[in-house]
Amino acid sequence: MGKLVVGTTIVCTAAICGVAILLMKHHKKNSSKWEKAMDILKEFEEKCATPIGKLRQVADAMTVEMHAGLASQGGSKLKMLISYVDNLPTGDEQGLFYALDLGGTNFRVMRVQLGGKEKRIVKHEVKEVSHTTHTKNIMAGSSSDALFDFIVTALAKFVATEGDDFHLPPGRQRELGFTFSFPVKQMSIASGTLIKWTKGFSIEDAVGKDVVGELIKAVERVGLDVRVAALVNDTVGTLAGGRYNNPDVIAAVILGTGTNAAYVERAHGIPKWHGLLPKSGEMVINMEWGNFCSSHLPVTEYDQSLDVDSLNPGEQIYEKLISGMYLGEILRRVLYRMADEASLFGDYVPPKLKTPFILRTPDMAAMHHDNSADLKVVGDKLKDIFEVPNSTLKMRKIIVELCDIITFRGARLSAVGIMGILKKLGRDTLKDGEKQRSVVAVDGALFEHYIEFRNCLEGTIKELLGEAADSIVIEQANDGSGVGAALLAASHSQYLGLEES
Fold it and tell me: 107: pLDDT confidence band, cut at 50, 70 and 90?
């Protein structure tokens, strides 16, 4: 009996010891996994760092590239395109004008009734067409005819709904401004050739063609009587809309699916090779700053792999660091490495985590804005997007930290771009103590809806400018690009100067 008890005791003790050893190994294994995950996090944070010294270097590089791009064609990664807009809206514009606005996220058609200085914008209607599977197929297709037929068909349907509130004088042709949010080399205010596609578009046979010419052909195919009065980049349109509302607007920035900037250059700042003499002493320059690149930019291995896998490797580097199309994808790539090398989500990599661009920036923003105690929104997004059924609070906190790192880098680099423009115009410092008010109009869903991004951008501007920051205003431009196109159509109308009949 005694032997049996002793034997049983030995067996039980051995079993307990075995379980304890397994638990210790499991704990040690989990600890090493979390250490690896934290190592990846720390390394990523260090490579994304944007200390004030580095930001000033990037701002200086931006200003240098602006000068180089204006000095000679092809002299810089920045296109510094002449917009042919040298008469921005004044508020005197009157009449009914249409606008088309083609961007990376949606397509919009609108009409605006202008009433001059007293009534300003009398009425404004917009029809938005989100990019469905059909339009995405067009975006990735090979036929420019299909794209422009789609645009004009939507315009024709919208014109047919024109009500009595909108007044087109008898005998006059409808006029429109076309906001085309892609790099275009303009030849006049109403003509320009497509340089390249961005934002996921890849219609090869449209490159090198006159955008307005293609639009007019589609208008003729439909039988619509419309004159294209102005071709504008979305950023130029935002600048025009901003200036219409505020005479202190000197630049505009788009922070949405993609990113770009335009600003008002003084006539003496435009080299003679352009062969232009702006009537008003100033000219709007479309920078195409998404293509900015500098050795001072904090680029990581995730950014490099994203660039290699993109439709335009080696191009739009700045855009790939700061715009809404890419922020969520950068986060996905970091999470994939953590899942693969540090078992962030357990002993398997969620299959959905391997899908490029499955994590959209709006979803990332929702996780970043989650201030609940258990980070429920983060958990729900992991479940809905990556099919991770159970996530711990520890996992969720890591994801919020990654959102911080990616978003703050993007926002701070966006602020630096604005700083570069201010430096180019000599508006980054106080002149003999005098405050020269400068307003930058900003449009785009990233700036409007991603609050953490916006707050960081505005805070960085103040950090960079010091006392001079009091004279700089970052102003949201609601629907700036579309309304701006209509306003530029008005300021370039064939009926300009004629009284309303």
Answer: confident
To the query of whether residue 234 is one of the catalytic residues in this protein, the response is yes
Q: What size, in residues, is the chain?
A: 501
What domains does the chain contain, in order, with CATH numbers? 84-245+479-491 (3.30.420.40)
Q: Which of 234, 370, 428, 443 is catalytic?
A: 234
Q: Alpha helices, DSSP H only, in 193-265? A: 211-222, 234-245
For residue 245, the model assigns a pLDDT of: 87
Cβ(446)–Cβ(453) below 8 Å: yes
At 166, is the secondary structure helix, strand, or coil?
coil
- Which one is catalytic: 108, 243, 332, 333? 108
User: Which residues are within 8 A (CB) of 376 and not within 5 positions of it... i.e. 6 or more apart?
Assistant: 370
Q: Specify the DSSP class assigned to residue 346.
A: S
Q: What was the pLDDT predicted at 282?
A: 85
* Average pLDDT value for the chain: 88
Whether residue 181 lies in the annotated active site:
yes
Q: Which of 76, 83, 144, 181 is catalytic?
A: 181
- Cα separation of 431 and 395, whole Å? 51
Q: What is the pTM of this model?
A: 0.85
Supply 217's token pair. Answer: 């052909």
From residue 189, alpha-carbon distances to 83, 264, 364 in Å are 7, 16, 39
- Helices 393-424 and 324-342, axial angle in degrees (round to 10): 140
Two structure tokens written together for 75: 């002299």
Instruction: Confirm whether 310 is a catalytic residue.
Output: no
| Separation of alpha carbons 238 and 482, rounded Å | 8
pLDDT tens track for 160-171: 999 888 888 888
Give CA 72 to chain center in angstroms. 27
